[in-house]
């Protein structure tokens, strides 16, 4: 990925629905979603918890679980077909790494297991992945975290998980919650790195619950979900205009993602009502205590004990 261009793939999904046939969450978790992701861009699937973000990502990438069934169409470069092996990478939300290895060793193992050909060519793929994810300073450090060994920082562990997929030089990269458990600085740095990766031609599509204003500004397109329904798909600036036209303009000092979640999540109204009820109840209790303490009978009893 060092000055290397990637032939990305254009993804289109039409009227995509996913149903789950298990006892915990039966029914459709994604309903008639349509959208696209283009080479050289960042496309985010955003929504509140249990809105179907991860399920939609798995459906587009062809990685649905046993109880999940997909309806609809997915096109790759205009052809209705699944993504071929080696053409895409998929990064889960939770990092599963071999903690007794260094970063470079971890990526070598990944290359040996996934790539055909001789080891010398695989080595260059590994070094390119290290450079692409800015892991040069950590390449020879243990991933760690077991037997009292020093653990690699969370942000760098996330980068290793992504680099593990980059050794395949994928045309499309899927990431489930790339900023999971990251602080604001690490989150911004990682998104800048992914933006640079996309600029090489790779198609990057990922899920996210919320983001800062700075991170949101790096996105090219947004697919906004709520209860499995696609409320908006398009460019991020168009999403802001869409909500403004609907009577929900984004406040100047508020993150757009926080504003969208507040507007589409009915749980906020329920929580605010609960807080108001608690505030009224608490105020009533304080007032009652105040009246009781400063009543003449109470003061008389205290003063003349």
Automatic annotation (TrEMBL):
Please provide an example of a Pfam family that matches this protein in its UniProt record: ABC_tran
Tell me if ATP-binding is a UniProt keyword of this record. Answer: yes
TM annotation in the entry: 280-299
| Gene Ontology MF term list | ATP binding; ATP hydrolysis activity
Keywords assigned by UniProt, alphabetized = ATP-binding, Membrane, Nucleotide-binding, Transmembrane, Transmembrane helix, Transport
Question: Ranges for the ABC transporter domain?
Answer: 11-252
PROSITE patterns documented for this protein: ABC_TRANSPORTER_2
Per the record, the similarity remark reads: Belongs to the ABC transporter superfamily. ABCG family. Eye pigment precursor importer (TC 3.A.1.204) subfamily.
- The name on file for this protein is ABC transporter domain-containing protein
Species name:
Aegilops tauschii subsp. strangulata
The record lists the lineage as: Eukaryota, Viridiplantae, Streptophyta, Embryophyta, Tracheophyta
